[in-house]
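With this grant's support, the team has encoded backbone shapes as discrete tokens. A representative record is reproduced below.
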Amino acid sequence: MLLGAFLTIAALVALYWKFGEKFRQAVLGYDIVVDVTVTAMFLIMFAGTISGMMIAILAGLIVSILLLIGKSLGTSRTVRISRNGFEWEVKHGLLHKLFTART
């Protein structure tokens, strides 16, 4: 059951890394929407058996943890409405702050 959850997450992470940097940052920017959507998708995909539902719940938990870690460490982007239209609002995480810190 745990192996099934990790294999599902491995496939999702491999798909995630195929997209561009702006998309990956947008996923981290809208982490709550992505988390709820992916968990609901897993619950629908694995519905029917108890072991399938446990795989879906564990995979959703792992996605939540990975998004939390990714958002705190990486750079995230959200869309902000301004006078000039839509703009990306960039928020840098801990890794960016560590590597760009001046000593």
User: Anything to note?
Assistant: The beta strands are 76-82, 85-91. The chain has a mean pLDDT of 86.
